[in-house]
Amino acid sequence: MxxxxxxxxxxRSVLQNGVGRYVCQLKRISIVFSKKAQSSLGARDFIxxxxxxxxxxxxxxVVYVSPQPCRVPKIVAEYLNGNVxxxxxTSKTSQQISELLTKLxxxxxLEIIRIRKPFxxxxxxxxxLWHPFTNRPPSIGPIRPQKPDS
Amino acid sequence: xxxLTLSCWIRSRGPDRYWKVQEVLKHARHxxxxxxxxxxxxVLAVRRAFVYATKARKLKKxxxxxxxxxxxxxxxxxxxxxxxxxMHNLTKSSVQLNRRVISDLAVxxxxxxxxxxxxxxxxxxxxxxxxxxxxxxxxxxLSRVVMLQ
Lengths: 150, 149
Hints:
The complex is a heterodimer of chains A (150) and B (149).
Chain A: E1 8-9, E2 26-33, H1 41-49, H2 51-57, E3 62-67, E4 74-79, E5 84-88, H3 94-106, E6 114-115
Parallel strand pairs in A: 1-6, 2-3
Antiparallel strand pairs in A: 2-4, 4-5
Chain B: H1 5-8, H2 17-25, H3 39-78, H4 83-92, H5 99-108, H6 110-132
Helix pairs in contact in B: 3-5, 4-6, 5-6
Keywords (chain A): Mitochondrion, Ribonucleoprotein, Ribosomal protein, Transit peptide
GO molecular function, one term (chain A): structural constituent of ribosome
GO cellular component, one term (chain A): mitochondrial large ribosomal subunit
């Protein structure tokens, strides 16, 4: 896990989301679970109780519920910038699944990799960046228009 | 006649070798030479890389601090002071800025840094007056100690 061998990114927000309007970055949620398996019990309970409330609370997110014969129930979250995140929900309770969903809703779609600095500014310098002539007095005086020779 | 012993001699020796090898090679892809392709060379190189990465976590803190100190020293010498004088007088004036912040100020806010250098120089002059003077002069402004109750 070297810093040069693993990807890293700078801290940023998606198009300054939240400064003006806040747009939920979660585009689509697909809950893939099985109708009969024992590991999807929490998923089935969540779909009975909480999925409709979740869908009503987040009108900008499309919720797909797909029961299919699968060994591992999972939640596939797609974000507005195209990133896809899969989380497995085997043997999770309905409460844990709803917490997981709130976590996914609050995330922006940026990758979860090492963030180089915990801060970011668009205007790092107010008085002007230092250059070799900042603290030197000017060698010629102020430039004035030439006096006409009368 | 059906030959059955031939198929009994075929053994599957471990179906996951490719993925175990890729787990190591993926950390070696940005290396130079055959270390980024050949597993036996890559294992050694990846192990060294991880060891260097763990050791470097302490070194990074040291290196960053020396970088900040050299930047602050260069900036103070532009204003006619030296680094030890600046830091000592800033701490005596209870300015608790660390070296990272002062070096960032020196780069992005040169006028604020100039004011810090002037503050340190004033405190230095007060210190000289207190040490070399006769005690008849009034005590300085910046060297007043505030007692909080």
